[in-house]
């Protein structure tokens, strides 16, 4: 399991399915991540074929696993399966390095993804989300190219032995991280009178980490790519200026289009024209019902956009940050993310929706009602049928969870 120089891959791979702690031999062609064939420290999703027959159109279902051994005899691998599984777990008791997963926030794009822990070279990043550095970004369901994955600057937000947990809570973790960064962006003054920031401290820490270690081939490549990344910053800045100029020109051109044409087209498409088409196809349907059905979705969309604009305008939240908070498809997660974006740490720790105390000696503050109304308006518009009571319940759950995470009940 350590050699990378092979001329052909054995027919079968003995896979340990981590969720069920069971082993079974499967055809090695089903291992998408080819690095797993020769490294049992890499954990990833593997297709589980129910037979060696034809794969269904939607593909085999995938489960988390590792490759214990390769071989051309299915029977021989089965005989060794119990011993190999026991050896794997015995080794795991001594160290979990490389066997878990991390949630990475890619700083250039504010996207996030769950990748194997083994991709993180600087292990200090596993326990410190303030550290940021270049990290190889693997692409799901694709084999790593010969030149390796592209390196993107990112931070490790959380480590877990279970990939599913990170995928489930991904957006909530990202939203909380961004909210914390927003609250800690003020520069501080060092003992020598110079201003310092978390970015400069991170960069210094990263440099020390690389200076203390030897230059392996992997680290040499890592340093080279990092330097190339730094050299492109000036080019990227110039490109952004050019794009901004083109956007201004486009906006001026759009304003030259006669507004009356836009209004006429909108009037035809949203009312009379569509009503006529539906009426001709379905003569028995009342015209009023058709018009209401057409207007409803448009009005609902307008409510969502107005509620979004109100949050951005009144809270000072950037639109990119709002889009991250509102990305989940579940009203409860969106509600909890907006709570993290609209309220600071002190408010989250000391306030409730009503101000009613659980402890008679402690009188909590009341969460800012205009901000709560902003959350109510957006969530109920975005998720029709959701009640104010349901939104308030989600807000209360987030407050309790946040305080528990800080060590308070």
From TrEMBL:
<feature type="region of interest" description="Disordered">
    <location>
        <begin position="183"/>
        <end position="215"/>
    </location>
</feature>
<feature type="domain" description="BEN">
    <location>
        <begin position="327"/>
        <end position="406"/>
    </location>
</feature>
<dbReference type="GO" id="GO:0003677">
    <property type="term" value="F:DNA binding"/>
</dbReference>
<dbReference type="InterPro" id="IPR018379">
    <property type="entry name" value="BEN_domain"/>
</dbReference>
<protein>
    <recommendedName>
        <fullName>BEN domain-containing protein</fullName>
    </recommendedName>
</protein>
<dbReference type="Pfam" id="PF10523">
    <property type="entry name" value="BEN"/>
</dbReference>
<feature type="compositionally biased region" description="Polar residues">
    <location>
        <begin position="183"/>
        <end position="200"/>
    </location>
</feature>
């Amino acid at each position: 399991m350590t050699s990378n120089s092979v001329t052909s891959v054995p027919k079968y791979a003995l896979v340990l399915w981590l969720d069920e702690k069971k082993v079974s031999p499967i055809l090695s062609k089903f291992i998408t991540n080819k690095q797993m064939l020769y490294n049992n420290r890499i954990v990833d999703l593997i297709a589980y074929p129910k037979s060696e027959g034809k794969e269904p159109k939607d593909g085999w279902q995938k489960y988390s696993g590792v490759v214990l051994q390769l071989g051309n005899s299915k029977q021989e691998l089965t005989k060794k399966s119990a011993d190999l599984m026991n050896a794997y777990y015995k080794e795991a008791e001594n160290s979990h390095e490389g066997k878990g997963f991390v949630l990475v926030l890619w700083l250039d794009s504010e996207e996030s993804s769950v990748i194997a822990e083994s991709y993180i070279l600087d292990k200090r990043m596993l326990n410190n989300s303030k550290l940021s550095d270049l990290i190889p970004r693997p692409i799901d369901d694709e084999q790593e190219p010969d030149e390796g994955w592209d390196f993107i600057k990112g931070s490790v937000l959380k480590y877990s032995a279970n990939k599913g947990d990170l995928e489930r809570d991904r957006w909530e973790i990202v939203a909380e991280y961004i909210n914390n960064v927003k609250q800690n962006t003020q520069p501080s003054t060092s003992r020598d009178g110079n201003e310092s920031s978390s970015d400069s401290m991170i960069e210094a820490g990263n440099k020390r980490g690389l200076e203390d270690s030897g230059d392996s081939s992997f680290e040499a490549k890592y340093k080279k790519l990092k330097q190339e990344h730094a050299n492109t910053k000036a080019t990227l800045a110039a490109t952004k200026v050019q794009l901004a100029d083109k956007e201004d020109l486009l906006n001026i051109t759009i304003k030259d289009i006669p507004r009356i044409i836009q209004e006429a087209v909108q009037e035809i498409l949203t009312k009379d024209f569509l009503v006529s088409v539906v009426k001709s196809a379905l003569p028995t349907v009342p015209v009023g019902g058709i018009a209401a059905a057409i207007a409803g979705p448009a009005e609902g969309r307008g409510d969502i956009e107005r509620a979004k604009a109100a949050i951005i305008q009144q809270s000072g939240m950037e639109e990119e940050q709002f889009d991250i908070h509102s990305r989940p498809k579940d009203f409860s997660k969106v509600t909890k993310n907006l709570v993290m974006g609209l309220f600071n740490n002190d408010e989250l720790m000391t306030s409730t929706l009503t101000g009613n105390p659980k402890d008679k000696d402690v009188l909590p503050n009341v969460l800012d009602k205009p901000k709560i109304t902003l959350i109510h308006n957006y969530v109920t518009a975005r998720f029709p049928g959701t009640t104010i009571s349901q939104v308030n319940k989600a807000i209360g759950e987030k407050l309790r969870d946040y305080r528990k995470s800080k060590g308070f009940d």
